[in-house]
């Protein structure tokens, strides 16, 4: 069941297509996770995306109209 406070919380969503307005959109495959370097870089990008999403939710930063895909 969804609660009102859950709506303001950033979530990690895995889809087969790029969602509109995403704070982070990554194309990944299971083999990407074979290297520690990739896992560390992805964790950094997730942390930045969560921070950006929190700022967007509070109005502290403008929402990007076109979020570039990361390789």
Provide a compact summary of the structure.
By secondary structure, this protein is mainly alpha-helical. Helices cover 32% and strands 0% of the residues. The protein has one domain.
Description:
The chain is an all-alpha fold. It has one domain. The chain is built from one helix and no strands. The protein starts with 35 loop residues before the first helix and ends in a 13-residue tail after the last helix. The mean pLDDT is 75.
Characteristics:
71 residues, single chain, 0% strand, mainly alpha
> What is the residue-averaged pLDDT?
75
How many extended strands?
Answer: 0
Secondary structure class reads: mainly alpha
How does the overall form come out from the CA principal axes? flat
Q: Summarize the helix and strand pattern as letters.
A: H
Question: Into how many domains do the coordinates divide?
Answer: 1
Number of helices in the DSSP assignment: 1
Strand content: under 5%
Query: What is the CA-based Rg, rounded?
Result: 14 Å
N-C termini distance: 34 Å
Helical residues, percent: 25-40%
Biggest beta sheet summary: none
- Contiguous runs where pLDDT drops below 50 for at least 5 residues: none
